[in-house]
Amino acid sequence: MDDSYQLRELCLRTFKGGMRGHLPSALSLVDILNVLYSDILNVDCKEPLSPVRDRLVLSKGHGCIALYSVLALKNFFPKQVLDDFCKFDSVIGGHPERQSIPGVEASTGSLGHGLAFGAGIAYSTRISGLQFNVWVIIGDGELNEGSIWESAMAASHHRLSNLRVVVDSNEMQASGETNDVWNLGNLAEKWESFGFETHVVNGHDLKDLREQFSRVSTSGKPICFIAKTVKGHGVKFLENDAKWHHKSAVTDIEILALENGLSDAK
Questions:
Q1: Where are the domains of the chain?
Q2: 3 state SS of 126
Q3: Which of 28, 31, 123, 218 has the lowest CB atom count within 10 Å?
């Protein structure tokens, strides 16, 4: 079975376990995380704290259902844990917590902080002498936060060539389309102007993602990938519907519709 489809099944399983969550934000991330954990990241579920592991910071922490699903698929913890999503005393909640979940590198959810955290980790390799890459995934709505651009300037100034930023550019956020909320113009040009080597990638094309994510910085600059995605990708009636951004009172009928919608995409 294709891992991306299986991951979407696990996302829905997690959502169903808690009967709540940011499911569309997770579904736009699935293919990105699939490629990173299957082909790119130097990580090992048997040594989740290896000092030379690559680090992945999910700055858009509300998309954590996708991260939990890929970590479960890659055996960082049992899949059964997904069924306890957002339940009392569960280790997996509505945002990822580093101390509770193997494989989670940062407690995130307060938007705009992940890139500063990731840039700091990337800079630390110069002090420690260790060699690894740091990946930070942010949402395009999150780019409204000024701390993102402060961090980008710092990363560029220090020429953090081991830093990789992935913008999940699904063009939607909680209150509508990103360009209506705060139009940032051409994202590739903007990141280039902040000193990043920038590439645009189809965020749902596994081959394109593998080729692009395999790039090594030849310029000494940090790299930014603008991943063009669809919010809710894989379930047609979910796609680009802001009403589904977050659900906290899901009905059994809605769960059945989601299961049928996902099956139709198989």
A1: 3-264
A2: helix
A3: 218
Distance from chain centroid for Cα 75: 18
Report how far residue 224's alpha carbon sits from residue 231's, in angstroms, rounded to the nearest whole number. Answer: 20
Residue in 140, 151, 158 with CA at minimum distance from that of residue 227:
140
Are 86 and 94 spatial neighbours (Cβ–Cβ below 8 Å)? yes
Domain at 3-264, CATH class:
alpha beta
The amino acid present at 110, given as its one-letter code, is S
Q: Cα separation of 201 and 195, whole Å?
A: 19
127 CB burial (10 A radius; 0-12, 13-18, 19+): exposed
**Two structure tokens written together for 7:** 């991951």
The residue to which tokens 């040594």 are assigned: 47
- pLDDT tens-digit profile of 105-158? 999 989 999 999 999 999 999 999 999 999 999 999 999 999 999 999 999 999
Paired strand residues for 227: 168, 201
**Model pLDDT for residues 47-99, shown as the tens digit of each residue:** 999 999 999 999 999 999 999 999 999 999 999 999 999 999 899 999 999 99
**pTM across the whole model:** 0.96
Identity of the amino acid at 233: H
- The two structure tokens encoding residue 240: 């680009």
Going by their DSSP bridges, the two strands 176-177 and 172-173 should be labelled as antiparallel
